[in-house]
Please model this.
Amino acid sequence: MLRDKSLIPLSHQHQHALALCVRMDRATPIRDADLAAWQEEIGELFRAEIEIHFAAEEQVLFPAARGFAELVSLVDELQGDHVWMRGCFAQAETHSLSAEKLSALAQRLSAHIRREEQQLFERLQERMKPGELATLGKHLETALKDSTRTCILPTEATRLRPGK
Model:
């Protein structure tokens, strides 16, 4: 299904996070010498975009989805993912995230995004009227206004390497 324009800003941010997940997955196993650089990059992306993204979903998107009984359990699962991932991002900020947990974060974040895109967004688009989606989009735009719209470039330690 074509993505409704009200949800496109979230989808664009999902693409940024998925790109990071692909690089983390391809770098696995993360070398000890590179772990600090990965944690720094993860922390930077969290501060610039993901933290605001999560808040927008929790304050705007999830309450709208909870208006549909069949979406409540999905929203509960997605909210649980946010809690777990925030813990990982906090560990990355303090450079206490292990390489194994970093890999688990990449897998869970990727799966989380795919569930939002393929299940939550699709179902919302099927159930909400165009005017409701437009109102949702305006609220999301306001909630996302402080997110940084810059590309975070990988460092030498976190860039994709040939053959990976």
